Amino acid sequence: MNKPGNNPTAKQAAARIQLYFTTGGVSDELLKGSRAVVIDVLRTAASITEALDKGAKYVIPAPSVDAASNLIKQIPRDDVLLCGEHEAKPIDGFDLGNSPSEYTYKRVREKRLIYVSTNGSLALLKCAAAESVYLCGFINLNAVIDTLLKLKTPFPLIIVCSGNHNQFSLEDAVCGGVLINRIHRRIDQEFDLNDGARAAEKLAVEFGEDIPKLLNETGHGQYLKSIGFEDDLTLCAVDSAYSVVPVLRDGRLVALSRK
Length: 259
Description:
This protein is α/β, with parallel strands linked by helices. The chain is built from eleven helices and eleven strands.
């Protein structure tokens, strides 16, 4: 007979956190009833967070350049901007690329944005079946954690790294690991982690102390430098500079703020 207070069923259930290094293992069935955090450090999270912080009405993630171009034909053009990149480079005929510095108050305030990227916009759309979907990078990391932990039911939590062409991306994995480590420090609760989450935590300990160095040494960081976007690495490396959290609602990313 269990003594009062020792009934196992009375204990708080372990908080389930799963992390996937690419979108390949992510399905609607897995996402159902879960919170999802999509991580794209270079550069989707930074650019969209910047856009919403500077007053954009919302951002529509598109699965491809053609889909984005077709979508804008269906929307009055006066307050809509086509934005994004293909293979990290600006797209001919688009209004803005994928450098966070382009998303200024003057350019995006009160605008509706259609946005496509090689990895990030696809990952967001892949996670649309979740209970809620948040976009995260180092740039808004603490704001994402604050938002999650204010929810009545922040778990189960599924963290999806955008990766690079469905391959492992070190910067996304480390960001996911830092997110998990900080949640651990914030709440006193048991955690049920999958192998991806455990591995990401280890990577965060190994590489998470010097984010600028990390971004400059990853494969995608080196590629961005080689095509002239070195300054973007500096912007994406700043830890928790923004309070804005992009959340996906009805196919649109809108701004939440912890303020």
